[in-house]
Amino acid sequence: MLLSFLSWFCTSLFLNVRGAKLPEPEVKMEVLHKPLLCHRKSKYGDMLLVHYEGFLESNGTMFHSSRVHGDKQPVWFTLGNREVIKGWDKGLQNMCAGERRKLTVPPALAYGKEGKGKIPPESTLVFDIEIMEIRNGPRSHESFREMDLNDDWKLSKQEVKEYLQKEFEKHGYSANDTHHEEMVEDIFKNEDEDGDGYISAREFTFQHDEL
């Protein structure tokens, strides 16, 4: 009777564990420095400029430093857009420009079973990261509002054209109406999913890189 019960119990436990969804690994975060003034905090869709140092937790070996290696310049990336490891996307939210954090990132949110370069497989990584600057991302809510000149929560072809003209002029390129018209037509062809002649906030958020 006891053996029968133990067999049932172990089978039930196995099935429950196998069927349950395992919790996703977490990033351990520690604030190393926070500025007195914070005008905005980082969020998904923002472009961040960061300096960082990365270490192997197992032995403390530094595998990269943006201040020492390469061109010694900080790097830009878009938060939440899978341009960096998942640990960064999770751990660099709600930060201020000038803030430094220490992130301890488990393998599942870093380079996992494969590893990368100097990083062995299944490595827990430790990063010292400082945000130097935060900008609106190309697909952010703020960028949409900047383009939406009449505040109707949708973009017309004229609004997109005017935005492209301003961006070209900002970067020193001459305005070329014919070229802009072609770009606008191409953008709407790919962006305007419902074919109503406008790009909605939802369509804008997830789509074209040219905006």
UniProtKB/TrEMBL annotation:
<dbReference type="GO" id="GO:0005509">
    <property type="term" value="F:calcium ion binding"/>
</dbReference>
<feature type="domain" description="PPIase FKBP-type">
    <location>
        <begin position="45"/>
        <end position="135"/>
    </location>
</feature>
<keyword id="KW-0697">Rotamase</keyword>
<feature type="domain" description="EF-hand">
    <location>
        <begin position="179"/>
        <end position="211"/>
    </location>
</feature>
<dbReference type="InterPro" id="IPR046357">
    <property type="entry name" value="PPIase_dom_sf"/>
</dbReference>
<feature type="domain" description="EF-hand">
    <location>
        <begin position="135"/>
        <end position="170"/>
    </location>
</feature>
<dbReference type="InterPro" id="IPR001179">
    <property type="entry name" value="PPIase_FKBP_dom"/>
</dbReference>
<comment type="function">
    <text>PPIase which accelerates the folding of proteins during protein synthesis. Has a preference for substrates containing 4-hydroxylproline modifications, including type III collagen. May also target type VI and type X collagens.</text>
</comment>
<keyword id="KW-1015">Disulfide bond</keyword>
<dbReference type="InterPro" id="IPR011992">
    <property type="entry name" value="EF-hand-dom_pair"/>
</dbReference>
<dbReference type="GO" id="GO:0003755">
    <property type="term" value="F:peptidyl-prolyl cis-trans isomerase activity"/>
</dbReference>
<comment type="subunit">
    <text>Monomer. Homodimer. Interacts with type III, type IV and type X collagens.</text>
</comment>
<dbReference type="InterPro" id="IPR002048">
    <property type="entry name" value="EF_hand_dom"/>
</dbReference>
<dbReference type="Pfam" id="PF00254">
    <property type="entry name" value="FKBP_C"/>
</dbReference>
<dbReference type="GO" id="GO:0005783">
    <property type="term" value="C:endoplasmic reticulum"/>
</dbReference>
<keyword id="KW-0677">Repeat</keyword>
<keyword id="KW-0479">Metal-binding</keyword>
<dbReference type="InterPro" id="IPR018247">
    <property type="entry name" value="EF_Hand_1_Ca_BS"/>
</dbReference>
<feature type="signal peptide">
    <location>
        <begin position="1"/>
        <end position="19"/>
    </location>
</feature>
<keyword id="KW-0256">Endoplasmic reticulum</keyword>
<keyword id="KW-0325">Glycoprotein</keyword>
<keyword id="KW-0413">Isomerase</keyword>
<dbReference type="InterPro" id="IPR052273">
    <property type="entry name" value="PPIase_FKBP"/>
</dbReference>
<keyword id="KW-0732">Signal</keyword>
<dbReference type="Pfam" id="PF13499">
    <property type="entry name" value="EF-hand_7"/>
</dbReference>
<keyword id="KW-0106">Calcium</keyword>
<protein>
    <recommendedName>
        <fullName>peptidylprolyl isomerase</fullName>
        <ecNumber>5.2.1.8</ecNumber>
    </recommendedName>
</protein>
